[in-house]
Amino acid sequence: MAAGYLEILRARHATRLLVGTLVGRLPNATAAIAVVLFVRAEGGTYSLAGALAAVYGVANAVGQPVLGRLVDLYGQPRVQLPAAVVSALGMVVFALAGTDPVALACAAMAVAGLFTPPLEGGLRALWPSVLREEEQVHTAYAMDAVAQEVMFTVGPLLVTLCVSLWSAQAALLILAVIGVLGALSVVVSEPSRAWRSAPREAHWLGALRSPGLLALLGAFLFIGIALGSITVAAVSYADVHGGDAVYGWMMAGIGLGALLGGVVYGARRWGGAPERRLRVLVALLAVCYLPLMLVPGPVAMTALATLAGVFLAPSIACAFVLVDRHAPAGTVTEAFSWLVTTFTVGASVGTGLAGPVVEWGGAAWGFAVPGVAGAAALVVLLATGRVLGVPGRGGVVAVSSENDPNRAVEPRFSSGDRA
Fold it and tell me: What is the pLDDT confidence band of residue 2, given thresholds at 50, 70 and 90?
């Protein structure tokens, strides 16, 4: 199992790009908890903390596809690093000025979120130029999904550790610096500097003109809703069964399940059409949400939460393959960024939906929301099966006179990216 991952990590630039991207994304992964802890340290209310975190989240959702399109047009270094610097400046202003006046705090959070660099989409655009076999790229997508789970698990722990050792303000300032350093590590690398998007057709819709991509976004909107609703239902369950510790164990269980599922999924080479495989994975994901409605004791509930996460990372990794296939030529970074935005919006909607459901029927009915959302994602995939089965563009054949003195024709991946 480890051999496939080690083969990828031994590839030139692969480890640097993966680690740099994860480090650069730490501010985004930890922004919500860092903002809440800072606002509370400043004496602000939970309502203000939630509002500022929401401003950051909405701005981030808007900025990702916009910056992704700019990356496709102008390259990674010219967009990623300036965006990281501006985002960090917004975070620094927030940390130094505090929550008064509120308007300045909101503006700083909006800038920090809007200019968060699309490192996630940028990394997935780079994989085909770093790895020479398509199966390796698919394994890299799975490894990417697993690394996300590690980041979203370890990141909040690092923030709380920083707050306990120094202060919430120091945590924000350190995150801002870390974000810039991560982006810098990526954009000065040879693959990032050499990468160019494939020639693109001018169209105001950009990547969204692909019917297959729209189908994927529709399905993953519901998967995002499922994840967002689980967090609210888990809080309600923990309030009755042991408090914050139980909530922490449940969230850790979901992360552990996703990590294990992603590791196993990426270690195997899968045959058959990826769109059919995605339908199976999403169906299993929806089914594994249903046992959460049993709301047993904390130990059993943690085990069920782990089961609920097992098919999450594989579903995301499989979706990466399909995004690459359906993104119109020259829009691959934007397409991946739209997936991030859709997932984020879905999680926010899920949080809002689960609240009233929990108040009406308790935790058990709250855990019904992710099951329904997972089923809705499957319905979208089934209804759009014909669209997903037709790639937006075929694989291209590139002639690389720079790297191949004999000018041999080399089959390339469907992203059309070149280095």
Answer: low
- In whole angstroms, what is the distance from residue 213 CA to residue 335 CA? 8
Structure tokens at 124: 């997935």
- Say if CB 403 and CB 118 are below 8 A apart: no
Distance (Å) of CA 281 to CA 193, 330, 341: 36, 29, 21
Q: How does 139-168 read in b/e, with b if 16+ C-beta sit within 10 Å?
A: bbbbbbbbbbbebbbebbebbbebbeeeeb
pLDDT above 50 (res 398)? no
Q: Residue 413 phi/psi, 5° resolution?
A: -85, 165
Q: Render 156-205 in DSSP notation, one character per residue.
A: HHHHHHHHHHS-HHHHHHHHHHHHHHHHHHHHTSHHHHH-BPPP----TT
Cis peptide before 101 (omega within 30 of 0): yes
C-alpha to C-alpha distances, 74 to 79, 138, 306, 338, nearest whole angstrom: 7, 26, 42, 18
CA 390 distance to own-chain centroid: 25
- Cβ(268)–Cβ(390) under 8 Å? no
Q: Which residue has the tokens 């969230």?
A: 251
What's the rounded Cα separation, in Å, for the pair 7 and 5? Answer: 5
**Residue 403 scores a pLDDT above 60:** no
Q: Is the pTM of this model over 0.70?
A: yes
